[in-house]
Amino acid sequence: MPGVLQGEPLLNAVWEFCAARRGTRALPARRDIDPVEMPRFVLPNLVLFDVFDQGARFRWRLAGTEVVNRFGRDATGRFGEEILTGDYLAFVTSLTRHACLSRVPIYSHAVFRWQATHAMTTSRLYVPLGDEQTGVTQILGAHEFGTKASLARSAATLLRDAQRIDELARQEVPF
User: Fold this and answer.
1) Residue 18's closest CA among 117, 103, 93, 97?
2) Of residues 60 and 134, more confidently modeled
3) Which contiguous run of DSSP H or E holds residue 136?
4) Neighbour count for residue 17 (Cβ, 10 Å)
5) Please, which residues bridge with residue 144 across strands?
6) Largest Cα span, the chain
C-alpha cells in the first residue's frame, strides 16, 4: 500500500485493483477495468473521464451515484467547461493534465470552503488509462468524501458557490 493512501481505504482499493490489472505495462488500459470485478463499495465513488489534448479538456464518461449525490448533478456525457467554472474547473483540469503528462496515478486532498464555517473535504485518486501507442485516453477517478461541516448550500450549487479551494496535498502514486 502506498503510504499516502494509508487511511484512504476506498482510494487504496482502486489503486490496488488498477495495479493488479495493468500487468507489466506502464498503465492499465480501459479494457483492463471491468466494474463487475471491482470491489462493490468503490463503485458509487467512481468517475471515468475521456481526456483530450493531454488532459486540458475532459468529458465525463460516467459518474457514480455518490459523486452525483454530493455534487447535485449527473455530469455524464458533459465536458468540464459545461459543468464547472472558475477555480474548480482549473483545479480538476490541473489534476487531469498532471495524470496525463506524468502517466502515473495522482492523489489529491482538498478542502472546499464557503464563508468561514462551511467546508467539505475530498480526497481523490486519478488513474490514467491508456497504452504506449495512444497515450492516456481516459482517467479513472475515485472520490473519498470527508466532512461537510455546517454546509448550508444546496447540492445543486455546491461547486459553483465554492469561494476557495485549498489543495492540502498532491502526490504522484506510481505503480
Assistant:
1) 103
2) 60
3) strand 135-149
4) 21
5) 123
6) 48
* CATH 2.40.50.140 given to domain 10-21+44-172: no
Q: Which three cell numbers stand for residue 51?
A: 481526456
Q: Is 3 helix (H, G, I), strand (E, B) or coil?
A: helix
- What residues contact residue 99 under an 8 Å CB cut-off, 6+ apart? 55, 105, 106, 126, 127, 128, 136, 139
Residue 150 is which amino acid? S
Question: Which helix (H) or strand (E) is 58 found in, with range?
Answer: strand 57-63
Of 135, 83, 172, the closest CA to residue 92 belongs to 83
Each residue of 147-170: pLDDT tens digit? 654 444 455 445 555 668 899 999
Q: Give me the torsion for CA of 52, 57, 62, 66, rounded to 10°.
A: 150
* Cα R_g (the chain), whole angstroms: 15
Count the neighbouring beta carbons within 10 Å of the beta carbon of residue 4.
Answer: 19
**Mean pLDDT of the chain, nearest integer:** 89
Strand partners, 125: 107, 142
